[in-house]
Design goal:
heterodimer, A: 284 residues, mainly alpha, MetI-like fold, globular, B: 293 residues, 75% helix
Chain lengths: 284, 293
């Protein structure tokens, strides 16, 4: 920021207090994650005789090995894979169908265009949580319980991405389409050669948001994956807790929690700029 | 807003919108219509036939003290989550805005929780407050406070509120921070020259300018706490104790899937649908207004 040396900054000479407050805030916000990490590196007896240590132990490799390759009901590696397929499927699927329909809405006049537009608009208002019972019945009647299609398809029926792309396509200069038409280019050629390359950043930003959205789904996988082999990691953690009075295997569960947050955290941190942009775009 | 230059033909565009249309109809409109339809019936206990009851399910729900309690629980829950996530986020954003050089590092650290799924956040907080092994509940015990969210409804509510608000702080922080960055520095400098101290400037100039963002976040956070907190509640309390944390979405799930009461669950879905509709209208109204702000 260019005004960094302005009068306002000079007046705020107590910046160390601000730093202190920020550091305190960051520490408090990080504490649950830190504690989970510590719990994933110590032994079960160390946890069940409180207070648990607050510095990491030496069981890191053992606990993560136990989680990844044995787990409780199913190896966590398998759940990670399922989550990855689901998150990728939702992100790629939603982006693909939205790009196509946004292109059709912006660059064509076809019968039923207005109706389609309004149909899509209505889907903005209904999160999956509201229609779980009937959607579950639809999936069951297609025989899609415990399948990747069942996990993915109902969650890609939403309009946010379509509106976002429509908004962006409207800003593409008309001259480009004009030129393409004069050159005799077919619409799909124009789409592939001009529109797609121009939308790269928007696609990437949206991908980041949708990947996290898909990865963090809980209710839907909980309903339709009755087979532990199909559990996703986020919903699988809860299944690792024993139902009765048995003591939970805390180190393995906490290792799983850490594993469950690593992929979305990596995506957010490594693509922070795109992520922030995608967040601001998709909410407005 | 329409394009002047368009392509001709109608078959291609229809093929292009077909995938989205088909998926929306099968997984969206049909289930939504089913929800409305089923809300008018009561299935017999064996699921063989169902009886048309008109608005009977709705009448029953509105007279049901558990449902009304769930409405109240949801209201309390969403208000608490919204405030507990917005106020710390605003404070952090104001601080980050002052620390121009190092705000990037803090932002990177603060956005972590956003990536943590609500259900995982639930597990983390449940672990800290676990009545047997939780470190926070243990220290509270040392101080003479007997924490037990499994039995105490108020404590259960407190815990699900904190666990739900935690991840949202990141989200709200990012929006507040962006809003603060866009406040014209000349305005602030002008008032600084006039001798206004930091808090005076904050309340008189900055706060009014970021109200649109605050209002936007208010609506978004309420919608979040209505729907996306299911994972937190399911992992920490499963709606208990004595339904103290059964929010509306959780009740749709527990009546529909656990209790197998399809008519009532569908009617609840329809009511929720109306609530979301209202919230969306508020949101759109406000977006319109913001243009003229």
């Amino acid at each position: 920021m260019a005004f960094g040396n302005g009068i306002v900054q000079k007046k705020g000479s107590h910046l160390w207090l601000t730093h202190l407050f920020m550091i305190l805030g960051v520490l408090i916000i990080f504490f649950p994650i830190w504690l989970a990490f510590v719990a994933s590196t110590v032994t079960q007896p160390e946890i069940v005789s409180p207070p648990m240590p607050i510095l990491p132990g030496d069981q890191f490799i053992d606990n993560y090995k136990a989680a990844l390759f044995a787990g409780v009901n199913v190896p966590v590696a398998k759940m990670l894979f399922n989550s990855f397929v689901m998150a990728m499927g939702i992100a790629v699927g939603k982006i693909t169908i939205s790009l196509l329909s946004a292109f059709a809405i912006v660059y064509f006049r076809f019968p039923g265009r207005q109706v389609f537009f309004w149909l899509i608009f209505i889907t903005l208002m209904l999160p999956v949580e509201v229609r779980i019972v009937p959607t579950f019945e639809v999936i069951a009647s297609f025989g899609l319980l415990n399948s990747y299609s069942g996990l993915i398809l109902p969650l890609i029926a939403s309009a946010t991405a379509t509106f976002l792309f429509r908004q962006f396509f409207m800003t593409i200069p008309d001259e480009l389409a004009e030129a393409a038409r004069v050159d005799g280019a077919k619409p799909m050629r124009f789409f592939i050669d001009i529109v797609l390359p121009m939308s790269r950043t928007n696609i990437a930003a949206l991908f980041v948001i949708l990947f996290i959205y898909g990865w963090n789904q809980y209710l839907w996988p909980l309903l339709i994956t009755t087979d532990p082999e199909m559990n996703t990691i986020v919903m699988g953690i809860k299944q690792m807790f024993p139902s009765g009075d048995d003591v939970a295997e805390w180190p393995v569960i906490m290792a799983t929690s850490i594993l469950a947050m690593i992929p979305p955290v990596i995506v957010v941190i490594s693509m922070q700029k795109l992520f922030v942009r995608g967040l601001m775009d998709s909410e407005k | 807003m329409e394009k002047r230059v368009i392509f001709r033909g109608w078959l291609l565009p229809i093929c292009l919108v077909a995938p989205q249309l088909i998926i929306s109809i099968i997984f969206f409109f049909y289930p939504a219509a089913q929800a409305v339809w089923q809300s008018l019936f009561i299935p017999d206990p064996f699921g063989l036939s169902s009886q048309y009851v008109g608005l009977g399910n709705f009448e029953y729900l509105l007279g049901d003290k558990y449902y009304r309690a769930s409405f109240l629980t949801t209201a309390v829950f969403s208000v608490l989550v919204t405030f507990c996530s917005m106020i710390p986020a605003l404070l952090l954003a104001v601080c980050a805005d002052r620390l121009i050089k190092s705000s990037g590092i803090y932002s990177t650290l603060l956005i972590w929780p956003y990536a943590v799924a609500p259900a995982v956040a639930g597990v983390l907080w449940m672990f800290m407050f676990n009545t047997r092994v939780g470190i926070v509940s243990w220290y509270l015990g040392q101080l003479g406070y007997d924490w037990n969210h499994v039995l105490n409804g108020g404590e259960a509510m407190g815990l699900v509120v904190i666990a739900s608000a935690w991840g949202r702080i990141s989200y709200n922080f990012l929006f507040f921070f962006a809003a603060l960055q866009s406040v014209p520095k000349s305005l602030i400098e002008a008032s600084a020259i006039d001798g206004a101290h930091f808090w005076r400037r904050f309340f008189d100039i900055v706060l009014p300018l970021i109200t649109p963002t605050a209002f936007f976040l208010l609506v978004v956070n309420v919608v979040y706490s209505f729907f996306e907190t299911f994972g937190v509640i399911h992992t920490i309390t499963a709606g208990g104790p004595q339904q103290a944390t059964t929010i509306l979405v959780y009740k749709v799930f527990s009546d529909g899937f656990v209790g197998q009461d399809l008519g009532s669950s569908s009617a609840q879905s329809v009511i929720l649908l109306v609530v979301v509709g209202l919230l969306t209208v508020i949101q759109f109204k406000y977006i319109e207004k913001r243009v003229h702000y």
